[in-house]
Design a protein that fits this description.
Blueprint lengths: L1 H6 L4 E5 L5 H13 L11 E4 L3 H14 L7 E4 L5 H10 L3 E4 L1 H9 L10 E5 L1 H4 L5 H10 L5 E6 L4 H7 L7 E5 L12 E7 L5 H8 L7 E5 L3 H13 L4 E4 L5 H13 L4 E4 L12 E6 L6 H8 L9 E7 L4 H11 L7 E2 L5 H7 L41 H6 L11 E2 L2 E2 L27 H8 L10 H12 L17 H6 L16 H6 L18 H4 L15 H10 L76 H10 L8 H4 L1
Parallel strand pairs: 1-6, 1-7, 2-4, 2-5, 3-4, 5-6, 8-13, 8-14, 9-11, 9-12, 10-11, 12-13
Antiparallel strand pairs: 15-16
Helix pairs in contact: 2-3, 5-7
Length: 668
């Protein structure tokens, strides 16, 4: 019916069931009007716009088949492929372009595509193309093509709103409907429909048993979301079925690989979203399963239209959850079906086996003997020069992860200041084999240095005894000095002793020995400073070697108790001879020792005053442990009057005489 009108050049709105050959209805008329290709004609004359990439590929193949005798040049442009092959084909010249709106506008923007000579325009799946999602792009394309053109719209479902909107872009169109009078959007009569009310947790088990029905061919499973699509495909794969997924998050190469494997029979289950619900024509699809309930009646019609095409029969099974029951009732009412109350169904229900011809005793896992399909991995992925990266739910595909070479273990080396430590440095092996230490012969002659070195004990320095071992070594190396008798501080040394023997003094940590500067320069003293005696030593070397011309009265004596405590912890110091010098008699002034605590200048420099003792706040002890006392500041003063309560005011008002005081209006 539509072919004669299309050949005459009239604008057309065609509506027919899925699988009735709408592609050839507009394809033959378009190719006939364009005619044979010419060498001097490179700009396209025909334009077909489709909503999905998969449908673009299918329409292109059908047009190439129809143009076999004419030799028309047909080009397919859609997203996900590289631009270069499409640009080269446009430069060589094309007659018909089949593409999606996005890529068409991109090529026009880059000035590689010129639509100024298009004489025939076709919108396939027009209700989807004129939807709110594609409408802005379609309006831009209409502005790029000439006003004098033939426009044809084809779809299986054509709502009234879309028909009224399409009249804006068409010139006196003819609406052709290949439908029965019973209703718009009627489903294909060759499809047997089954609707069950199922539980969400049991749907995958019912689907696994449905896929083992006798006589089942290729099966398409439709899900509502991409994530649900991946989940169902993954679970069916673990149960032994040859399955693949198709949705918008996959790369174009993966989508086409899955469709080719499905058409070639390498897989028998295709899980897809609504991206594959329109226009996909695959032979031998016997079952269609609506895993998720469709959102509207048009989606339901297009989904189940994938089976029962071209006079064949098929089965469509729809799972309806309890939450989706209201939505399904609206779809059932719009399409005039008899499934207003779906039957409650579980994987163990007897009618599941009887209605779908499933063998008794079938479980949710496919037996190994029935796994005869090659699977998705047997289909090669075509390099399409994809503009985006490959996206999957699990990241990389399993085969790519297995082919990746194993990472070599990294060797870590410890360095210090950019240099390798001795333990990490490569060991140089001598060319001569090492001799066993036990079998090595000892030399017959030893030198004096070797004997002395062997006699010296080897010292092992530890962290804790490092200082004590150094002191002991210094004491053992020092020469022994004769012991001289000590005398009182104020007593005079005999002249004979001073003349015959040099004066040798013993230096302690508490007593400061006065030595000239020459002695300090020749032999510096080795001192061992302790925590106790640190405060008694001078702050600098100049103070230690200060000449003894200073009066004795300037030195302060520590209390006897402190000197006795210091004598306990003092350590011996190496004695050394002192250069003889004349003894000067100085008057000794006896002063009473003052405690260090009273003299701040004699306190150790590093000592800090003790912190003041914290004052504890006053505690309020209640008379009973269960009583709680609250103290609040008294903000009242002596001049403040006590505010009367509400009860007191009411009493005063009652006591006022009615006649004497006057009424309230006068006193206000």
């Amino acid at each position: 019916m539509a072919l004669p009108l299309a050949l005459s050049g009239q604008d057309l709105i065609g509506q027919a069931r899925t699988g009735t050959g709408k592609t050839y209805a507009f394809g033959i008329a378009m190719l006939q009007s364009i005619g044979k290709p010419r060498k001097n004609r490179k700009k396209p004359r025909g334009l077909v716009i489709v909503p999905t990439r998969e449908l673009a590929v299918q329409v292109s193949e059908d047009l190439v088949t129809a143009a076999g005798k004419l030799g028309s040049r047909v080009l397919t442009v859609y997203g996900g492929r590289a631009y270069e092959p499409q640009i080269e084909a446009l430069k060589a010249g094309v007659d018909v372009i089949v593409g999606t709106p996005g890529r068409l506008l991109d090529l026009v923007k880059q000035k590689h595509l010129d639509l100024s000579q298009v004489t025939s325009l076709v919108l396939d799946e027009a209700d989807r193309m004129l939807d709110l999602g594609f409408l802005p792009d379609i309006e831009r394309i209409f502005k790029l093509i000439p006003a004098q053109r033939q426009t044809m719209l084809f779809s299986a479902t054509m709502p009234g709103e879309i028909v009224s909107l399409s009249r804006k872009y068409l010139n006196r169109p003819t609406h052709v409907r290949a439908e029965l009078e019973s209703g718009e959007g009627e489903t294909t009569p060759q499809v047997r429909q089954i609707v069950w009310r199922t539980h969400r947790m049991d749907k995958i088990e019912i689907l696994s048993r449905l896929l083992q029905a006798e006589g089942r061919g290729l099966t398409m499973v439709f899900c509502e979301t991409k994530r649900a699509c991946d989940m169902v495909a993954e679970q069916l794969d673990t149960r032994g079925f040859a399955v693949a997924a198709v949705h918008g998050d996959l790369g174009q190469g993966q989508r086409e690989q899955a469709l080719r494997a499905f058409r070639n029979g390498k897989i028998d289950v295709l899980v897809a979203t609504d991206v594959a619900a329109r226009g996909i024509d695959i032979d031998d699809v016997t079952h269609v399963v609506n895993y998720d309930c469709p959102t509207e009646d048009k989606t339901y019609v297009h989904r189940i239209g994938r089976t029962g095409r071209a006079g064949r029969t098929g089965i469509a099974v729809t799972f309806v959850e309890w939450e989706e029951l209201t939505r399904w009732k609206m779809i059932n009412q719009m399409l005039g079906l008899d499934f207003a109350e779906p039957e409650e169904t579980y994987s163990t229900s007897p009618h599941v086996y009887s209605e779908l011809n499933i063998p008794e005793g079938t479980k949710g896992v496919l037996p190994h003997a029935a796994r005869s399909r090659a699977g998705l991995s047997a289909e090669r992925i075509e390099d399409l020069g994809e503009t985006g990266r490959t996206r999957t739910r699990g990241g990389r595909r399993r085969e790519e992860r297995e082919e990746r070479p194993a990472r070599t273990p990294r060797q870590r080396r410890r360095t210090r200041g950019g240099r390798e430590l001795a333990e990490n440095a490569p060991v140089e092996r001598p060319e001569v084999e090492p001799v066993n230490a036990k079998a090595e012969e000892t030399p017959a002659i030893f030198t004096a240095d070797e004997i002395q070195e062997a006699a010296e004990p080897k010292r092992v320095r530890t962290r804790r005894g490092a200082a004590s071992s150094a002191i002991e070594q210094a004491l053992s190396d020092a020469p022994e000095a004769p012991v001289t008798p000590t005398r009182p501080r104020g007593a005079e040394a005999p002249a004979e002793e001073a003349a015959e023997t040099p004066a040798k003094r013993t230096r302690t940590r508490r007593a400061v020995v006065e030595a000239p500067a020459e002695e300090a320069a020749e032999a510096p003293a080795k001192r061992t400073r302790t925590r106790r005696s640190a405060a008694a030593e001078p702050e600098s070397v100049e103070a230690a070697v200060e000449p003894s011309a200073a009066p004795v009265t300037e030195r302060r004596a520590a209390p006897a108790a402190e000197r006795e405590a210091a004598a306990v912890v003092e350590r011996p110091v190496v004695e050394r001879p002192v250069v003889e010098r004349p003894v000067v008699e100085r008057p000794v002034v006896e002063r009473q020792a003052e405690p260090v605590a009273d003299r701040p200048e004699l306190r150790p420099s590093f000592s800090t005053p003790p912190p003041p003792a914290p004052k504890e706040p006053e505690r309020i002890i209640p008379p009973s442990p269960f009583a709680v006392i609250f103290q609040s500041p008294d903000l009242a003063t002596d001049d403040d009057d006590i505010a009367p309560s509400a009860a007191t005011e009411r009493k005063q008002q009652r006591r006022q005489p009615r006649g004497g005081g006057g009424n309230r209006r006068r006193t206000g």
